[in-house]
Specification:
By secondary structure, this protein is of the alpha+beta class. It has a domain of 99 residues: Tetrahydropterin Synthase, Chain A, CATH 3.30.479. The protein is 39% helix and 31% strand. It has a three-stranded antiparallel sheet with strand order 1-2-5. Helix 3 crosses helix 4. It starts with a helix and ends in a 9-residue tail after the last strand. This is Tat pathway signal protein.
């Protein structure tokens, strides 16, 4: 067996192994199949006892309301980001006793109410927090 055949066989084997987990990596399908706008890499503060303790970077999926398209909403993404960062500083989404995650329900309701003034009532029907990644992992439990 020559070197070219070995490399080609390895590439084919690697491609088939990588393709299978990627197809099965989405075990939980979303509740609706409507259009959605994704917002990734938004850093929000974790404030406890009046002090900044950590940052949590979130990835969001905004499900759009009736009559709204991704093309209409994409230019408003910066406004959604700004409104969420301002809300997080005004009333933090911190979870008591844990500085590595945010309260998903409060974050979601804050963004839906901000979206009503940014893009009109009913423009965002639901906010799904896809991922939460804290900046610091160790030593982040309140004592």
């Amino acid at each position: 067996m020559d070197r070219r055949s070995l490399i080609a066989a390895g590439t084919v084997a690697l491609t088939s192994v990588v393709a299978q987990p990627a197809a099965a990596s989405n075990p939980k399908p979303s509740r609706s199949s409507g259009p959605a706008l994704s917002i990734a890499g938004l850093g929000l503060p974790v404030i406890a006892d009046g002090r900044l303790r950590n940052y949590v970077f979130v990835s969001l999926r905004l499900e759009l309301g009736r009559g709204k398209t991704i093309e209409q909403m994409r230019p408003k993404e910066a406004y959604f980001r700004d409104a969420l960062v301002k809300a997080a500083h005004r009333t933090p989404f911190s979870v008591a006793g844990d500085w590595t995650r945010l309260d998903e329900a409060r974050l979601s309701s804050a963004l839906v109410s901000a979206a009503n003034s940014i893009s009109g009532p009913g423009s965002i029907t639901r906010v799904e927090i896809v991922a939460q990644t804290p900046r610091r992992h160790s030593g982040m439990q309140a004592s």
